[in-house]
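Narrative progress, year one. The postdoctoral researcher (J.K.) led the effort to move from monomer predictions toward full complexes, under supervision of the PI. The following entry was the first complex the group processed end to end, covering 207 residues in total.
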Amino acid sequence: MSETYLDKIYTVTDQDGQRDAYDDWADSYDDDLDANSYKTPGRIAEALKQCLPSDQANPRILDWACGTGLSGAALSEAGFTRMDGCDISEGMLVHAREKKLYNKLFTTPLGVPDPSMFSDYDVVTAVGAVSVGAAPPECLPAILDGLPSGGRLAVSFNALTLKDKAYMDTLDQVVARPDITLEFSEEGPHLEAEHVSKSRVMVLAKA
Ligand SMILES: C[S@@+](CC[C@H](N)C(=O)[O-])C[C@H]1O[C@@H](n2cnc3c(N)ncnc32)[C@H](O)[C@@H]1O
């Protein structure tokens, strides 16, 4: 049986290779994830709704590493309307543009983002984004550093990422910060593919 993108992607460790792999995958990504019942975007959107105070029910969101916009589609379905998106893969962004869910979509450099790019947002979502096969763990503190006071990061770790020491050590470090509160953390279904059937959805709030 031929190897699928879902098998291959978690073995690509460098960001150049990942951008190329997501560019190649972009045209069939939505169909592949639909066929695997991709649950994490809906779980992230619901977790956010639970955590946001009623006077911040429609925050300015940056869907960071938005890919083709499946994460934005779940946020939109949950009632969020003020969304921008960005990604390293222009191929993925082509499909995100077609969905017409985001106010602004832009490409972002490989690797760890400049924290200043998050300063205008109340919420950053990183759905399947800070992950084995995607962005490196150092992105977590970079996003939290850039968020304004009162901001939130909604992030998922899939089963492979939950077993990866570098990602888990970085998660432990950010959760231990005095300015960060882990408001929500729940494990549940991710994809049907066996190696990534579960994910943990988390919401981190910055004081
Ligand atoms: C598994 S996809 C998730 C996409 C989307 N959030 C979703 O839920 O379908 C991971 C995405 O992360 C992007 N990515 C990887 N490294 C990145 C980085 N350093 N900065 C921004 N995006 C990155 C990839 O191009 C890809 O679109």
